[in-house]
Amino acid sequence: MTHLGSPHDAYDFIEQIGDGSFGTVHKAQHKISHKLVAVKVMKKKHTTIEECQGQFEPKLLDLLPAHINIVQLYDSYLSPNCELSFIMEYMDGGNLYQLMRERRHHNLPFNHCELRSIL
Ligand SMILES: Nc1ncnc2c1ncn2[C@@H]1O[C@H](COP(=O)(O)OP(=O)(O)OP(=O)(O)O)[C@@H](O)[C@H]1O
């Protein structure tokens, strides 16, 4: 379900944590519950709810069964300035590239079990 309105009304944006091909990702905190979330603000502008609901990523996340290795999608917003934002579970471990660099730096290669869970 996409809400009409800005995610800034419900969340305090803390910092930008990523920049992908399709959107920028921010760490944010719900103003009432204080729960930390990741907000992905899509680069492409959208004008209608129907257009937002046709997006591939949220459709896929909705279809997948709950799993600890799959980020949960909580909500989405369509702002008056035509920005579409997804509110997602916040993962605080960094991305795979950062993890690989850190492990290499400490000379700690992944074992078979870890590789299987990543792939
Ligand atoms: N749910 C999340 N919790 C914490 N950080 C996240 C979350 N989602 C994305 N990020 C951070 O934001 C970065 C960009 O994510 P995004 O999904 O926009 O692109 P990507 O999948 O990394 O790259 P691309 O879309 O270009 O293939 C990620 O690399 C990660 O560091």
From TrEMBL:
Transmembrane segments: none annotated. InterPro entries: Kinase-like_dom_sf (IPR011009), Prot_kinase_dom (IPR000719), Protein_kinase_ATP_BS (IPR017441), STE20_Ser/Thr_kinase (IPR050285). Keywords: ATP-binding, Nucleotide-binding. It comes from the Eukaryota. ATP binds at K40. Gene3D superfamilies: Transferase(Phosphotransferase) domain 1 (1.10.510.10). The keyword Calcium does not apply. Residues 11-119 form the Protein kinase domain. This is Protein kinase domain-containing protein.
